[in-house]
Amino acid sequence: MKGKNTPNFFTQRREGAKDKKNSASFFASPRLCVRCFPVLLFFFVLLALSGCSSAPKKPTEIFTERNTAASQLDLANHTANRGRYEDALRILEGARLLAVGTDDPPLRIKTSISRGNILFSLGRSTEAFAEWESAEAEGESSGQPVLAALARICTIRSKLVLLSGEAGGTDAAVEEFKTRLGLEMAAVRSEPNYTALGNIALGLAEKQMKNWAEAESAVRKALSFHENNFLLEDAAYDWFLIASIRSVAGNYDAALEALGTAIRFDRRAENGFGLASSWQAMGDVYQKAGRMEEAQSAWSRAAEIYRAIGLEDRAEKLER
Check: CATH 3.30.420.10 for 230-320? Predict the structure, then answer.
């Protein structure tokens, strides 16, 4: 109101003052002065009120770029969950630049952790471990111990995945990882979603040691949190991992049942990548059970889904 109305009011007064006759009559007329005084008084009261009560207040802190970074981070994670890892990395780059530009420690750490996850999924494990190490160091130096612990959980989980491909002589290493996981899970106990990730890693450790019941029990703790919070994609992955535990244990029918449940969750989430992965795994289990016709049917369905979501290379690998 002040910026809009004030110039017009005083312009009118200046234009009246240009003509001496008009100017004299303007100031000399008692009747006009008596009539103008209440108007002037009312006007300045409005100005005072405008300055005191209705003027926009400046925010004490601005979150525009950090909110944008958080949104881009969510989108990158969602894209990675769809199997589009290269696209996810490109999206994450924008989030990372905003996190660094605003010098926000939690966002810097989270973008590093997510980048490590995506790089590991691409098979670039050396780069992934470097990202998690960077995230851990940032967490420790910036007073973010929970996020530092999360970075270490990601590191342990991925080392367990790599360890699963090695034969023999791993029990001591797995026991060490289990001990470390216990410490890290105590650090993240205030964050249920991080605790769920810790339980997933614990399940992998128990699976590596062939403790099938303990492995499934650990994963089911994560599953309980994911199902109760309607995290459909995460719940689907939990069932996928339970199927893997059962399959390695030789319990093929139960593994197929778990994969069927994973497929139902991924259908609800419209997660084509999860669906294709579960159908592919179902084909693998059928093959192990000696049911080749059903295996071929499951692989064919997986390839069809991969192709529909634009992952032609995965479809071609299944069809070779």
Answer: no
